[in-house]
């Protein structure tokens, strides 16, 4: 049985991962559950899955968690450093990383150094520290298995293929809720509208990233590091139905694709049980219901974040880290109604121009870059704050 440390158990990916684990009690077990503020849900999950350890990253929630599980022999830890520590535990086979944003970096580094297999949902980790993470994985013989549906698709298309024969990767994108909005309409987008994705039910941060296309930009960077391709070999293609999860074109022009309904359960299960393919209860794709699969080019005039992400990865160094920190900061501000939807790209671009560039950043440089970028972005936000 594979023992799993589930980081972000109370989130969208985390709860779907528990659906899978519930269905595969002979193959998958829970060693640790880690979350942040939703302690009631964490207690409920721990009562069902009986992990060895339950962790809340929020130290102020320790008492509540301890109290909720006091009749069970479950160790209770608190604090983000506790999460970094728990992933190193000997019995763990897979660390399922589904925290959101920068916070995932440190526990991922600890897990890699301990040689654990990482089932990676938290794409921001590869965005902000792709070189460091892939080097650590190599050095410690740790495997990174993608959970993002697009990268899971690419990973599946590449099985049995010689990586040198890859011509390009075609990353599909739904286009988000504002695919057909004009520039004028985009000026008046509300957070309520931005939080409604047409095809996927996800956490707030990634839902906003999908609406701005930053999510796709991040996935370009993620693909570069996971599959060792150059940004020029990655094409983004809008495919509103989200049925083809991504494709790989080979040098002989043959294209392989992976298809399925838009449901994260499948890529999560595949990452947790790889290289096995298990029976599942998921609804399968019925082509009668999807007789029209359509494709279009992304519009980078209305959705500038995609170009910003390509620019960041072309520059390399700490620029993707700047991109990520600025993006997390503007999303917080947008969700607090401080800035408009449209202002987000402007502020990120300005921050990328004004934050110090480091060509070969160390881990410490990345930590500092993240902090400085958040300060610079916050100043830009104040200048453009909605009255
Ligand atoms: N959702 C999807 O369909 C999807 C698809 C592909 C990739 N991803 C990626 O997967 C990651 C997770 O996405 P999600 O949609 O599952 O997010 P989510 O629903 O917002 O869940 C985030 C999880 O992280 C925890 N968390 C948040 N802040 C934390 C902190 N400071 N310290 C420790 N834990 C913290 C939350 O705990 P509490 O809830 O207890 O506060 C929650 O368990 C993201 O990087 C996203 O890009 C998601």
TrEMBL record:
List of residues binding NADPH: 10-13, 124, 203
Record: residues binding Mn(2+): 148, 150, 219
Record-annotated 1-deoxy-D-xylulose 5-phosphate reductoisomerase N-terminal domain positions: 4-130
Reactions catalysed according to its record: 2-C-methyl-D-erythritol 4-phosphate + NADP(+) = 1-deoxy-D-xylulose 5-phosphate + NADPH + H(+)
GO MF, any single term: NADPH binding
Binding site for 1-deoxy-D-xylulose 5-phosphate: 123, 149-150, 174, 197, 210, 215-216, 219
First-level EC class: oxidoreductase
Family: Belongs to the DXR family.
Protein's name in the database: 1-deoxy-D-xylulose 5-phosphate reductoisomerase
Organism of provenance: Azobacteroides pseudotrichonymphae genomovar. CFP2
Organism lineage: Bacteria, Pseudomonadati, Bacteroidota, Bacteroidia, Bacteroidales
């Amino acid at each position: 049985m594979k023992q799993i440390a589930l980081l972000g158990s109370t989130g969208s990916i985390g709860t779907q991962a528990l659906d899978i684990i519930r269905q595969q009690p002979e193959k998958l077990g829970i060693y640790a559950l880690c979350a942040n503020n939703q302690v009631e849900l964490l207690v409920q999950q721990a009562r069902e899955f009986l992990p060895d350890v339950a962790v809340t990253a929020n130290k102020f929630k320790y008492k509540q968690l301890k109290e909720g599980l006091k009749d069970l022999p479950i160790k209770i830890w608190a604090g983000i450093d506790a999460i970094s520590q728990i992933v190193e535990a000997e019995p763990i086979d897979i660390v399922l990383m589904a925290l959101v944003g920068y916070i995932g970096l440190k526990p991922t580094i600890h897990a890699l150094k301990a040689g654990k297999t990482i089932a990676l949902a938290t794409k921001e980790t590869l965005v902000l520290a792709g070189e460091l993470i892939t080097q650590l994985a190599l050095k410690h013989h740790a495997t990174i298995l993608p959970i993002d549906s697009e990268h899971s698709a690419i990973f599946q298309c590449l099985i049995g293929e010689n990586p040198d024969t890859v011509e390009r990767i075609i990353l599909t994108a739904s286009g988000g809720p504002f695919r057909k909005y004009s520039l004028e309409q985009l000026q008046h987008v509300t957070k309520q509208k931005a939080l409604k994705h047409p095809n996927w039910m996800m956490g707030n941060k990634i839902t906003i990233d999908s609406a701005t296309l930053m999510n796709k930009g991040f996935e370009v960077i993620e693909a570069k590091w996971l599959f060792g391709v150059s940004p020029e070999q990655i094409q983004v293609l809008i495919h509103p139905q989200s049925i083809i999860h991504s494709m790989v074109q080979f040098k002989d022009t043959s294209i392989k694709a992976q298809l399925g309904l838009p449901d994260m359960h499948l890529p999560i299960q595949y990452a947790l049980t790889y290289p096995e393919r298990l029976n599942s209860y998921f609804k399968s794709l019925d082509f009668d219901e999807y007789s029209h699969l359509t494709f279009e080019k992304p519009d980078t005039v209305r959705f500038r974040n995609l170009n910003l992400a390509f620019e960041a990865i072309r520059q390399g160094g700490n620029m993707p880290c700047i991109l990520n920190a600025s993006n997390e900061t503007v999303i917080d501000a947008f969700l607090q109604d401080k800035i408009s939807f449209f202002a987000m790209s402007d502020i990120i671009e300005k921050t990328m121009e004004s934050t110090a560039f480091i060509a070969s950043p160390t881990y410490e440089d990345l930590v500092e870059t993240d902090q400085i970028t958040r300060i610079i972005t916050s100043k830009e936000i104040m200048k453009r704050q909605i009255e």
